[in-house]
Amino acid sequence: MKIGVVTFPGSLDDGDAARAARIAGAQAVRLWHADPDLHGVDAVVLPGGFSYGDALRCGAIARFAPIMETIKKAAADGLPVLGICNGFQILCEAHLLPGALTRNQHLHFRNRDQWLRFDNVASAWTGSFVEGQEILIPVKNGEGCFVADADTLDQLEANGQIVARYINGNPNGSMRDIAAIRNEAGNVVGIMPHPEHAVEALTGPSLDGLGFFASVLQYLVAPASPAPAQEAQVRETVTIPEPLIRPTIPVEPDPALAPPAWPEIPARVPAQADDAEPVEADDEADSDPAAEIDEPAVAAAEQRRDSSEH
Amino acid sequence: MSIDTVERAESTPDELQPYAELGLKEDEYLRIRQILGRRPTQSELAMYSIMWSEHCSYKSSKIHLKQFGEKAPHSDRMLAGIGENAGVIAINERLAVTFKVESHNHPSFVEPHQGAATGVGGIVRDILAMGARPVAVMDPLRFGAADHPDTKRVLPGVVGGIGGYGNCLGLPNIGGEVVFDPSYQGNPLVNALCVGVLPTDRLQNKAATGPGNIVVLMGAKTGRDGIGGVSVLASATFDEGSERRRPSVQVGDPFTEKLLIESCLELYEAGLIVGVQDLGGAGLTCALTETAAAAGTGMDIQLDKVPLREPSMESHEVLASESQERMLFIVEPSNLDAVLGVATLWGVIATPIGVVTDTGRVHITWRGETVVDVPPGSLADDGPVYARPLREPADLILLQADRAETLPRPTDLRETLLRMVASPNLCDKAWVTEQYDRYVLGNTILAQPEDSGIIRIDEETGLGIALSVDGNSRYTRLDPYEGAKLALAEAYRNVAVTGATPVAVTDCLNFGSPEDPAVMWQFAEAVRGLADGCQELGIPVTGGNVSFYNQTGAVAIHPTPIVGVLGVLDDVAQRIPMGFAHDNDVVFMLGDTTAELSGSEWAWVVHGHLGGRPPHVDFAREQAIAGLMARAAELQLVHSAHDLSDGGLAQALVESALRKDVGVTVALPEGADPFVSLFSESAGRVLVSVSRGHRQAFEALAAEFEVPITALGITGGDRLAVKDQFEVPLDELREAWSGTLPKIFGT
After folding, report:
1. Minimal Cα–Cα distance from A112 to chain B, Å?
2. Is B10 on the interface with A (CB under 8 A)?
3. CB-CB under 8 Å, B254 with A50
4. What is the pLDDT, as a whole number, of residue B2?
């Protein structure tokens, strides 16, 4: 089974999500935001981070990435999608999930080990947990306060779309202590805390995070009948990081970012204008590797030399 | 205004130039004229003023820092040392680690959030420039009194800035310090450490070799921010009107830096570049002249090519700007398209701005005219060097005579303990550290409040590194030589107690004005102490940073050498955490306790007292403890280990018990003053918990390493109990310990 992890500019926990998928027994596939091809993955994780530097609003720009169009269509057809932290924010911005994530009420970034309780486990990503189960995974965000209007919240409750809530303290002021929600179909889940950081005893506060990845693997094998709750299969860590799949040719250059008509590079010019014999300069320019790249470089250099000879 | 060209400079030799306003002394200005054989142009003057500033040229510290090289033990591990962007240490045949600590003190006082943020950004680029992927950061911080109104302005801004930048780069923050002392009221210290990992064959070079190669500037556009940061801010004392210097503080954009990191690593991996240098203090001026000087080459630069945020900028501003998130590459022409392609892929601006020449001159044009024509070595390497006068501070004898050992001692030890754990320097720092991401990258094995941060650097073998940064400025104020040694000893011990083997040192030396002979004496003594200590311990200083002029008016900060020690752990699974983990473990103390209370946290908290001489340092003991702990880790004999430092045994017991909510009952050594046993700050001590089954093996091991060992008690229960003295429930301890900072800074 292949779990794709999307890298946007500014994604940070992409490697961790891929590692978690791998430890759970999946093949992790690294996807690139500008490449709309999902490369045949069976499920997708939108990882944590600060895509596009959180410019405008968290996730507001990432939702327009080429790969998001594909993911939206595939999600409508039932592709399991898990958005973690920034991924959750992107899912909300993309309207794959309702509500929004706003600035923490206390206004600080907060990183702590957080207890959650499952409200409803009927999703592609939570089948191996049981209702009421409590887990400990890290939370770390600056804008993790889930908000929605009262009707939406009531509807989420009524439909069983609230996947998990914070217990023993709400770290960001989320309405109704919401930590994770799902769409009606149950294939799209957004979670603010970080299951991918709780997959190894040495680095996490628990192994509780593995259940999310194990669940989707079970779901993919038998989507209709979620397997009964059981311990996640922990595999030996293998650590060959997957290559990022990207188009080999650079994507269409963004005119705003492209260096303006760059190579007016001076060819090698001696510091003293006296040394520059015009005839020699031509030879020099021909043999100069910089000049081979672009003729204007030579022209520019000569122009400068001319002016300095006055 | 017309452009001040080289031609114009030659024809107007007598034009008055504002060298003094730019921080240059008259004789320095005359030397520039001598080097150039004419007056410098406006751009050249700007370049010299920043490159010859204290911050860039180390002109006051150079003659002292030489000791680090002279006294350094030979190490085959060192791949790059002092003078490079950061020291590089080989960990095995395949992997190397680079680390360095640097200051961003003055900007952080003027504008705490951006000052601290760009401090992180700057040190990360130093690490990046060596060819490494940055893998973690740490932040030693010093603030004025916790309850002073201005600390409420500075601390939240600094912490928010560090978090905002580091979190957004995806670097775990694994440790550091938060210390309050009135001496930092007008001059907080914001030091930032970064550590990176690289395959040994990916080590990068800053030399601009190969005439004809292209000079490429990558990253953010250049703006007016941070102009004169090194000369105006970092190399002068604060006085009234410091607010007006706010434009000298740079503004950070971590998103661009993240893209820059990924682009750089991709360029290194593909072998697309010849040389690389980050743009930090002194901006483009430093990067151009240092790369050319390192290779003995020259450069022809078209400054008009530099992408600007503000089109009206003048050439000297472009050269001096300290705009963040920029790197300079030297690229072979045949690789240029590939380099620009990588930049486009990540959405970063990359611009060829000139070529390397064999002229030995850095030649810069602006609007088609020559504005700079200088030998790069004169800026990068041949700055002025001063042997400044040294004088022991006049008050030192009296200060040292006023010993804390003679202060009245408490009768109610329980009350003293609760007061101590709630004091700003000993209390829970979660208010600060919860604002930092410690999980990202998934390799954090230990992070604050543990003794060291530990990062796994090889997921297959479990190879890891441990890092600790420490410094006690009260000790250094009382005796800079011993104080520097104590900082080294503590950082070394903090690494050793986790089971790691210390291998290298970095330092950030924060002092007052070098023009004050008393400050210069403190500096010279501290450097001598650190160099001697490193020699005794057999680990080299690989690089660091000097920050002078940390003072307000005539009053300098306490001398504050911050020492970072790097250790290696072959298998991170063997790391020893600090907290008691199981009931019924035997608790030992390694080392000896004597009545050493001068400079202690107790003397400060209870009596507001600073005087006497700091604790004695015994490096042989420290080495023995390190050997013992490494072996104990290997044999998996120990459940927890925690270094004894500020606040003594009492504080170590509290921290070890609260870490995992496991209580402890101890009996203090018979015949000793219980107060001294609990609150003395003797160095070379460690609190260890061992399962009963391993008790004898551990005692035998301690005997083998000739480390004194005292059985203190046993873990378990819900309280800290000191036999015949007092008991405190852990809940009560936690309330006292964790309430302080939220009470001051809000929840």
Report:
1. 6
2. no
3. yes
4. 82
DSSP character for B449?
T
Residue type, A100: A
Contact flag A10-B255 (C-beta cutoff 8 Å): yes
Q: Report if residue A117 sits inside a domain.
A: yes
Q: SS3 of B283, please?
A: helix
Residues B220, B324 contacting (CB under 8 angstroms): yes
- Residue pair B191/B299 in contact (Cβ under 8 Å)? The answer is no
Q: Is B499 helix (H, G, I), strand (E, B) or coil?
A: coil
Nearest CA-CA distance, residue B482 and chain A, Å: 37
Give the number of other CB atoms < 10 A from CB of residue B154: 24
pLDDT band for position A307 (cuts 50, 70, 90): very low
Query: Cβ(B213)–Cβ(B336) under 8 Å?
Result: no
In a domain, B731, yes or no: no
For B52, the token pair is 């010859």
Residue A254 in any domain: the answer is no
A29 in Cβ contact with A242 (< 8 Å):
yes
Are A271 and B373 within 8 A, CB to CB?
yes
DSSP state of A49: B
| CB within 8 Å: A109 and B164 | yes
For chain B positions 294-353, those within 8 Å of chain A (CB to CB) are 298, 300, 302, 305, 307, 332-334, 336-337, 340-342, 344-352
CATH code for the domain of A62: 3.40.50.880
pLDDT digits (tens, 9 = 90+) for B255-279: 999 999 999 999 999 999 999 999 9
What is the chain B residue with the closest CA to A287?
Answer: B212
Residue ranges in B222-307 assigned as alpha helix (H): 254-269, 283-295
| Pick from A120, A119, A111: nearest CA to A172 | A111
Give the full edge-to-edge strand order of the sheet including B350-357. Answer: B275-278, B326-331, B214-219, B350-357, B298-302, B362-366, B369-374
Res A242: pLDDT:
75
Whether B343 is in a domain gets the answer yes
Residue B29 lies in a domain: yes
d(CA B651, CA B642): 10
Length of chain B equals 747
CATH code (residue B252) = 3.90.650.10
**Active site includes A194?**
yes
Q: Which of A112, A138, A203 sits opposite B445 (nearest CB)?
A: A203
pTM attached to this predicted model = 0.90
ipTM passes above 0.90: yes
- DSSP structural state of residue B231: I
- pLDDT (0 to 100) of residue B241: 54
A268, A287, A295, A310: best to mutate for the B interface, most B CBs within 10 A: A268
> Are the Cβ atoms of B442 and A200 closer than 8 angstroms?
yes
Q: Which of A194, A197, A284, A302 is catalytic?
A: A194
A21: nearest Cα among A208, A230, A212, A206:
A212
> In 3-state terms, what secondary structure has residue A104?
coil
Domain count, chain B: 1
The verdict on a CB contact (< 8 Å) between B214 and A265 is yes
Q: Is the N-terminal amide bond of B182 cis, ω within 30° of 0?
A: no
**pLDDT attached to residue A45:** 98
Q: Calculate the alpha carbon distances from A23 to A45, A198, A232, A245, B693 in Å.
A: 15, 11, 10, 20, 34
Q: Is residue B639 predicted with pLDDT exceeding 90?
A: yes
* Domain residue limits at B33: 6-60+205-380
What does the pLDDT read at residue B129?
Answer: 96
- Domain around A185: 2-237
**Chain A residues lying within 8 Å of B255, measured CB to CB:** 9-10, 50, 52-55
In a domain, B306, yes or no: yes
Render pLDDT for B73-123 as a digit per residue (tens, 0 to 9): 777 888 888 778 889 999 999 999 999 999 999 989 989 999 999 999 999
Question: In the structure, what pLDDT confidence band is assigned to residue A292 with cuts at 50, 70 and 90?
Answer: very low
pLDDT digits (tens, 9 = 90+) for A214-226: 999 999 998 654 4
